[in-house]
Amino acid sequence: MSTTPASDADRSTALGAALAGPLVSTQWLCDHLGSEGLVVLDATVVPATGADGRPTFVSGLDQYLVEGHIPGAVFAELLDGFSDATGPYPFTRPDAAAFAAAAEAVGIDAGTTVVIYDAAAGQWAARLWWLFRSFGHTGVAVLDGGATAWRAEGRPVSRGHVEPRTGSGFAAAEQPGFWADKSTVAEIAAGDRTATLLCGLPARDFAARHIPGSLSVPAGRLVSRETNTFLPARELRKLFADALASPDPIVAYCRSGIAATADALALAVLGRTDVAVYDASLSEWTADPQAPLASVA
What is the pTM for the complete model shown? Predict the structure, then answer.
């Protein structure tokens, strides 16, 4: 009996179905690297010091080209394309048309399975993962441990530019429930809306200033210092115990909506589907002198 060869779309669908959740291991990626319909994205952003002496961020493209990347990985520019560079705040999320164009430019179409990593603690990968999901693409996961774990295990590294594949087009459709705006957060802080505010900033920054009523779960505490991979679920549950104790939906925030997506990713690992991210976060909140702030004495 003859059989019909599987189409590219069929293989892509099967690969996407093989994703066990929002995280994939380095072994999973190693086993599937080069598979039809898989695109690996390096979403690294590098901290730097601006001309005024203040902390800022620069593209990780030079690091990707010179220091190397996972073989076949395409660089995804979070500072532009996957963010609205003309937006009022850093890393403002793009609209659907701009996101679709950015996704197509790195070889993503509707059937593509996407694995994203960075060379940090996963927050940049989490941000891009959140964006993909918020625009309706479900076949996406973050590489647990990122480039740090990949290199530590002695896995192969390539250097130089990787030309993206040519896709068949990406249709971005913004999904409800992924984002919270300032007015929603203000209602929560005032007690006029039921939800849990969760801050992903480092503990010292949270202590200095945060939105009143917030809980603190620093994104940097979500991963192991030894392996850079996310902590086991039981340890994540301990970190999020206060938030998980409530049935209320969760709104995560930070400074610019980056660390907040790492918290959202960890909560997705724990099965929470009622999490939103305050995109502009404290960049917008603190620009309003009337917006209340609290501190830890």
Answer: 0.94
